[in-house]
Amino acid sequence: MPDREITGEPINDAIARYQRSSRGRNTDTDVYLHVVPGCDYCADGKTPAAVDGKTRAGYWANMCEYHYFMHGLGLGLGRGQRLHKDVTPA
Fold first, then answer.
1. How far apart are CA 18 and CA 83, in angstroms?
2. Do the bridges between strand 30-33 and strand 60-63 make them parallel or antiparallel, or are there none, so unpaired?
């Protein structure tokens, strides 16, 4: 597979591809948090992270959609999870 098909795909495309796979379980790609952290790459400190995932450099980071597209390796076990705000009471 070309590198472009494995890395840097939009989050929704990565989720759809993963759900069509034989393993396709949302628990591997989605995490629900009471407080969603900010993007580790954005300097403003206000941009919420969309993904907690492994980067092309090998380390893990909280990334907004833009930085996930630039640096992310995909979704699933060992790659990354999409972050969601949990609206249920604590």
1. 16
2. unpaired
Q: Summarize pLDDT for 11-33 with one digit per residue, the tens.
A: 777 666 655 553 444 567 888 88
Q: What is the pTM of this model?
A: 0.67
Q: Residue 11: exposed, middle, or buried by beta-carbon count in 10 A (0-12, 13-18, 19+)? A: buried
82, 29 contact by CB (below 8 A): yes
Number of H helices, E strands in the chain: 3, 4
Domain boundaries, the chain: 3-85
For residues 36 and 49, the answer to whether their CB atoms sit within 8 Å is: yes
3-state secondary structure labels for all residues of 41-66: CCCCCCCECCEEEEECCCCEEEECHH
